[in-house]
Amino acid sequence: MTQHEIIFLGTGGGRFTTITQKRRTAGIRIINGESLNLHLDPGPGALVYSISGGLDPQKLNAVFVSHCHPDHYTDAEVLIEAMTRGMTKKRGVLVASKSVLNGNSVCEPSISKYHQQMPEQLVEAVPNLKFNVANMMISVAEARHTDPDAVGFRFATKDYGDFAYTSDTEYFENIGKYYAGVRLLMLCVMRPAGKPWKGHMTTEDAIKIIEATRPEQAVLTHLGMQMIFQGPTKEAKLVEERTGVPTVAALDGMRIIFGEKIEVTNAKTKQGLDKFF
After folding, report:
1. Which of 212, 101, 205 is nearest to 144 (CA)?
2. Contact by Cβ (8 Å): 168, 67
3. What is d(CA 93, CA 43) in angstroms, rounded to the nearest whole number?
4. What is the pTM of this model?
5. Which fold has domain 4-270?
6. For 71-124, what is each residue's pLDDT tens digit?
7. pLDDT band, residue 272 (cuts 50/70/90)
8. What is the C-alpha to C-alpha distance for residues 215 and 194, in angstroms, rounded to an integer?
9. Considering 18, 51, 70, 237, which has the largest number of Cβ atoms within 10 A of its Cβ?
10. CB of 136 within 8 A of CB of 36?
11. Where are the domains of the chain?
């Protein structure tokens, strides 16, 4: 039984975090031995921070993109090129929202048809779809965002239960049904408590979802500038106090081992980041 390693190459989100890089916007890498090497929401910096973190992008066999905003898709094409050996071999799987693949009323396609044809498998991610990747059942969750086709993802492992990623979404009634029973829940919480923004989550919204789903561990990530200035660690503490669920604010470089236990390890170079921002 192999554990999953979840690496937060970037924990920032939103326009101003992206253009200032107060937090990286490189997305999340998920690895399970030799069977799975997945990059989730590869925003600006995904390629560079993969390489600097010792994560060879040519070992990827899956790229997931939740919606059509630059902090989620910018490096997707170059990672597809790495995954397909410089576009010389049909290889891996690309999973992306309808907006990313085909565009919609608010955006053009975010990944070219040229790049879409090279993965061995192409999946258009729409809510309630289920499919398999590397012995995991993936369920697509509804999200409500300024991209109407945005989605979240739930990953069902064979041996250790489920973990999930909400992507950008505002709170809505019954959102918790998509994440009920997960052991680890990663929430994109761009705003602190009391600072709502349409299409996004605040700390108070995260509390509602965590209370409804009761995971073993919650992680706040995809942090916007107001969240960074407010102090993500303080917001995570508020969540934990209100819900009783262990909650951390992700740091760039943080790693989670998802196995029989859920172990969170922060990158040494980023310790104390909150007190500076």
Report:
1. 205
2. yes
3. 18
4. 0.95
5. Metallo-beta-lactamase; Chain A (3.60.15)
6. 999 999 999 999 999 999 999 999 999 999 999 999 999 999 999 999 999 999
7. very low
8. 24
9. 18
10. yes
11. 4-270
